[in-house]
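Collaborator request, handled under Task 6.
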Amino acid sequence: MQTFDLATSPLRELNEALHAVASGSNHTHFEVLNPRGSHSVAVGVDAPVTVDVQGNVGYYCAGMNAQATINVHGSAGPGVAENMMSGTVVIDGDASQYAGATGRGGLLVIKGNAASRCGISMKGIDIVVRGNIGHMSAFMAQSGNLVVLGDAGEALGDSLYEARLFVRGNVRSLGADCIEKEMRPEHLDLLRSLLQRAEITDADPADFKRYGSARKLYNFNIDNADAY
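Structure tokens returned to the collaborator:
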């Protein structure tokens, strides 16, 4: 295991080492000490490595992640796992606004709460939040899945495309063109799989509601003008 102490080593050294991991390398486990809210920790990783960050991070941690498993043993600032491509990112604490924004693949797990705009413009990522999420989450979400074990704030799924939203708690309000949909057996199976991947064993898929697009904003229609 390689250890980087950000109290004594510059962040650039950590990210350079992560970017330099060669195919088939035995150096696949990294530990990051004293992140102290540093920004852009473990960004752009494109190798099947494990990164354990021991503390809180600032904005854009694990951005553009591909293949790697990144565990933050603390909370994360804005934009964690933004534009994530694959792999797994786990936040033990809370995440600030636009977690998982524009994510195209992989799994983001937030064990605490997520702030506003969680999953904004998501494009294939799977996001599981054990706590609550803030307002305007999944705004313009195109594909992928957002699972929330707690409550959702105002305007959930505003201008939603084909992403699937599963919420166990209360939803403050739904955004434009987002509606509650029937939870069919295939959705229960999908949700069960997502919870298993997130290592959540104390939640019953039957307790969730599913939300999705009403598909009225795909093309302009004068009858729906007040929703634009």
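The cover message to the collaborator said: "The first helix runs from residue 11 to 19. The chain has a mean pLDDT of 95. Please let us know whether this matches your experimental observations."
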